[in-house]
UniProtKB/TrEMBL annotation:
Keywords for this protein: Membrane, Transmembrane, Transmembrane helix
Topology class, membrane: Multi-pass membrane protein
Keyword Membrane: yes
Domain of life: Eukaryota
Family stated for the protein in its record: Belongs to the AIG1 family.
Cell compartments where the protein resides: Endomembrane system
InterPro entries named among the record's database cross-references: ADTRP_AIG1
Protein name, entry field: Androgen-dependent TFPI-regulating protein-like
Swiss-Prot/TrEMBL catalytic activity: 12-octadecanoyloxy-octadecanoate + H2O = 12-hydroxyoctadecanoate + octadecanoate + H(+); 9-octadecanoyloxy-octadecanoate + H2O = 9-hydroxy-octadecanoate + octadecanoate + H(+); 12-(9Z-octadecenoyloxy)-octadecanoate + H2O = 12-hydroxyoctadecanoate + (9Z)-octadecenoate + H(+); 13-octadecanoyloxy-octadecanoate + H2O = 13-hydroxy-octadecanoate + octadecanoate + H(+)
Keyword Membrane assigned: yes
GO cellular component assignments: endomembrane system; membrane
Alphabetized PANTHER family for the sequence: ANDROGEN-DEPENDENT TFPI-REGULATING PROTEIN-LIKE, ANDROGEN-INDUCED PROTEIN 1-RELATED
Length: 158
């Protein structure tokens, strides 16, 4: 949502330069954060065991169509964005730095567990400490591969 809002604001700038700061930031958001990691991870875990990421009890106040709006419809929109709008991908070292910072910030979900005693995602409660480390490293590896895939896809299309 942040990316698409920023893209709309960027497109409304009168007489904007092609390489404006806002345009560069928009491309950074798209290339590093928007590509479909959440879609892939959510549905992979959902297919394995729904209760680990989206318990059935949630359906009473968070309807399935809303779940799809957040975890499914994003993918075709992102792929359409790749096809209709060229993006300038940041240097790989800058992209990996940004991904690393977000990955470390995401570890704050461990703080939530330590403070409240409840895992944000029930799946995480099934891992040992070593399993959590492995899970987070696996996820970061997938994110990096998706960044590289998105960069290559953008390069081939444009």
């Amino acid at each position: 949502m942040t990316f698409f809002g920023l893209a709309a604001v960027n497109d409304l700038q009168p007489g904007k330069k092609a390489e404006s700061t806002l345009s560069k930031f928009k491309d950074l958001l798209f290339s590093v954060f928007a590509f479909p990691f959440v879609v892939l991870l959510f549905w992979a875990i959902f297919a394995y065991d729904r209760e680990l990421v989206y318990p059935a009890t949630i359906d009473a106040f968070f309807p399935p169509w809303m779940n799809h709006a957040m975890h499914t419809f994003v993918l075709p929109i992102l792929l359409g964005e790749v096809l209709v709008q060229p993006h300038v991908y940041p240097q790989t070292k800058h992209a990996l730095t940004a991904l690393g910072i977000v990955g470390l910030a995401y570890l704050s979900i461990i703080w939530v567990y330590m403070s409240v005693g409840i895992w944000v995602y029930p799946l995480l409660g099934r891992f040992s400490a070593a399993g959590l480390v492995g899970f987070f490293f696996f996820n970061m590896s997938v994110v990096i591969l998706l960044y590289l895939l998105g960069n290559e896809l953008n390069r081939r299309v444009w």
